[in-house]
Design goal:
Blueprint lengths: L2 H20 L5 H11 L1 H17 L3 H21 L7 H17 L6 H22 L5 H30 L1 H19 L4
Helix pairs in contact: 1-2, 1-7, 2-7, 3-4, 3-5, 3-7, 3-8, 4-6, 4-7, 5-6, 5-8, 7-8
């Protein structure tokens, strides 16, 4: 499978998830599920966590996405409880650039170091979700965006595995480079 086919397949997975969530439009769950799928920043980070997990292999394949979802929920709860954080937008843009760079350079971090990096960025992403929520049903909204995040991680893992299997690490690193460009676009206000 070629790199353009991988990107197209990943986009199709994300789009089908959006279309499915819109069937239950009006619910807090649907609003939470759709939210991360509508922002390039969220999509890029969540896919890239999955891709970086493939590069690391072993326990990172399940541990890093789990850390992201868990810590993102902690950030969400903190925001809904009124905890203020500076530089949330900057941290989110930095997460895209940093994760894209880690994948593009094929950095092999120890399990704990990758989890710490991912957890830090996830906290900011969760905080952003918590400050943007307009639903009164925080539980439904939180479950929705946590599930969408997991779906995007799985799509990233699938894209990483397909890229690695068909073209080796070079294709996986190219996905990281694309994420890096997307992150720079977010910093520049282009995305």
């Amino acid at each position: 499978m070629t790199l353009p086919n991988i990107v197209a397949a990943t986009a199709a997975v994300a789009w089908s998830a959006v279309a499915h969530a819109e069937v239950v439009d009006g619910s807090a769950f649907a609003a939470g599920f759709i939210h991360p799928l509508r922002g390039l920043d969220h999509v890029l980070v969540m896919l890239t966590v999955g891709i970086w997990s493939v590069l690391a292999g072993g326990r990172a394949l399940w541990a890093w996405p789990t850390v992201f979802v868990s810590t993102m929920l902690v950030g969400f709860v903190a925001a809904t409880a009124g905890v203020q954080l500076p530089w949330v937008g900057t941290a989110i843009s930095a997460s895209i650039v940093m994760l894209g760079l880690l994948v593009a350079l094929a950095v092999r971090a120890p399990l704990w170091a990758g989890a710490a990096i991912i957890g830090l960025f996830a906290f900011f992403h969760g905080h952003a979700h918590g400050t943007e929520v307009t639903s009164v049903n925080l539980l439904g909204y939180g479950v929705g965006f946590a599930l969408a995040t997991a779906v995007l991680h799985v799509a990233g893992i699938a894209a990483g595995m397909v890229a690695e299997g068909s073209s080796g690490r070079l294709a996986v690193r190219a996905l990281g480079a694309l994420t890096l460009v997307g992150g720079l676009a977010c910093f520049g206000g282009l995305a």
